[in-house]
Amino acid sequence: MPEDEEAKVIEANLLKLAECEKSMDQAEREAEIYRIKKTQGIFRDRRHILVNIPNFWYIILAENDDFSDYISVEDLKYLEYIADIYVHYKVTDGDADLKNPKDFSISITFKSDKELVPNQTVTKHFEVEVEDGEEKITSEPVEVQWPQELGTINPHLIKQRKGKDMSKEDKKNYRLGMKSFFSWFSWTGKKPGKEFRDGEDLTRLITDDLFPYAVKYYTEALPGADNDDADTSDPEELDLEDDEEEEEEEEEEDEDSKRKPEDQLGADSKRQK
């Protein structure tokens, strides 16, 4: 076959392959929309059940090592007052003009009888964009009422009070506040290094793991759950003195193994005496 004819054949087939790729993208989009719409109703029904289970979300969040990596120590006492977490996908609202059917919002409800954290439901909206073949999540900041006890590290209040005249202590508290879970609500994904760190990773943890598999995590955390990987030791019962004694014994054994045979015999004789 002449080269020019071969080139035309290749070009024609490449165009056909391009059409196949478009069809595949469309099929995947339709499948994603179907999956989201099908599961959203199930999650909605599940939500009505979960609100009747005391400390449901607290147990899940407190037991999850990944979640604790993204928040500050100061946040831990307030996890108990998270009464509801819900992920809602906008495509279920019938908006056909969405750029991406994966666009979503996360609603988090705080309820506290002790008024340690203001009672509120905060909904944060997210958009999923594709750049260079990779998905990227961005968001708009949303207002959240911080616990009064965290007022000294609330970045918004510090900036409001001090402006650019922040002392060394103010800057330290500001940086500490930016690591708080409550700063995640202001995260946008558009200002790297100047807002809550790892905001996208925490968002994905909630939407892709904690929310869809919440019941599994809860049942695994229940007392008596059949979990082969679970650590059955009680961290509050750890006897550090026993650990220290074991370490000392190991050190003595190491020293004995390093002695020369004649030294070892002498040492054994002394012990017998």
UniProtKB/TrEMBL annotation:
One of its GO terms (cellular component) is nucleus. GO terms for biological process: nucleosome assembly. Residues 256-273 have a biased composition (Basic and acidic residues). Keywords: Coiled coil. The keyword Repressor does not apply. Residues 10-37 form a coiled coil. InterPro entries: NAP-like_sf, NAP_family. SUPFAM superfamilies: NAP-like. Residues 226-255 have a biased composition (Acidic residues). This is Vacuolar protein sorting-associated protein 75. It comes from Candida tenuis (strain ATCC 10573 / BCRC 21748 / CBS 615 / JCM 9827 / NBRC 10315 / NRRL Y-1498 / VKM Y-70).
